[in-house]
Please model this.
Amino acid sequence: MTTTYNFKDGKGPVPAHQHSNGGGWVADTATVADTVYVGPNACVSGNSRVSGNARVSGNAQVYDNAYVSGNTLVYGNAEVFDSVRVYSYARVYGNAEVSDNAYVSGNAVVSGDAKVSLHQHVSFSVVKTDLLLPENMKESIEAQCNLTIFNDYVYCYKRVNDNLSSEYDDSFIYPVSGVVESEEADENKNVSCGKGLHFSHLSYYSRNEKSDSKILYAKVHVDDIIACLQGKIRVRKAEILGVV
Model:
């Protein structure tokens, strides 16, 4: 006889089992490693995958196509869902929600009533608010980009070709110093790779190093930032301070 459980997601009772490590309910469609702890009141459902030494406890829920791994802790009333990835030493707890295609990694902490969503990539600091709200832009920049903010200016980096042209448009030449502006910036704050000038933290560019490139150091006023997604900022205008 097939054991079923109602995960209260509108799908009614579905084939499920209690996880051997912790006793929490896991849908038969989900994949949970034996090394993972799922507490008695926690749930893993949908096509979720949980691996490594991750712990899902309290009343936490992991569902849809979420992927949780590493030494991640998901607990309290937290919800991790859609196609998110939560890994490394990240912690998600309280009433926090991680959804859409968001990533939470490193030593990042998402807690309280925080919401990390869309294509936000959080790897730094403690998040306690909804990062998509315009009034939380500074917190979003700190959480995703680990950049210095001083007197409403964000100090950031940009990789360009050896001749200072854009990697994506070689007709666009950055100055060694001075103000640079995008004439046709996409004003949609939910678009990461739209038109505009893109900057991030220095380690962002070390993921895919290029020998024939230069790194520019710049500052951007927070009012000129359109979006902060995928660990980078997209802006209308910046002041180039020099070559690193």
Summary: The chain is about 5% helix and 35% strand.
